[in-house]
Amino acid sequence: MRPVTMKLWIFKSYLFGFIIVVTSGFVLEGSQTSYAQFRKWNAGLNGSLELEFKTDQPNGLLLYTDDGGTYDFFEIKLVEGALRLRYNLGGGAQILTVGRDLNDGHWHKVQVQRNVERTSLTVDGVTQSRSSRGKEFQFGRLSSNSDVYVGGMPSWYNTKLTLLALPSVIFEPRFGGAIRNLVYADEEGGLPRRQEMKMTEFKVN
Fold this sequence. Notes:
CATH architecture: Sandwich
Strand content: 35-45%
CATH class: Mainly Beta
Order of helices and strands: HEEEEEEEEEEEEEE
């Protein structure tokens, strides 16, 4: 078991930067190579996503996913201690901001809820909602949507910005802190469940 554990940590260091995995979540150091990657979020028309975080840093990218580079995206980040959700469902970018002084080193719960054209952001029980413009509110296509990235973006996107619906996300400061209980449905008709980091390239000889 000990050699397998060593290989697992070497893999994580290579792919994600420095990550400490704990029983209830993981810690990202916020370096230029640190991030975590999860399966696609089936946001659909009525999808939901939630997570908990704690940090002492006022700025940082918490989560990003998009439709593969066309229009639709969800970006959750800390901006001067407030949580900001920026998203597009094809009718133009919208912004929701909730909370303040969230970089206090305590756990905070974040929820994003879709309801056709209406999207809600809830932080510690406080909710802001907004309706999108347009006629079609489906979030991309599950087959071509990106994975869910937490804490930062993979460096290979630097040379493939056309694959991002929001190219500026690559320049956002990375999140340094702890994440736990990332919950969403990752398949058609699936029930929300706690997600685990993708390690598709990890092989044990």
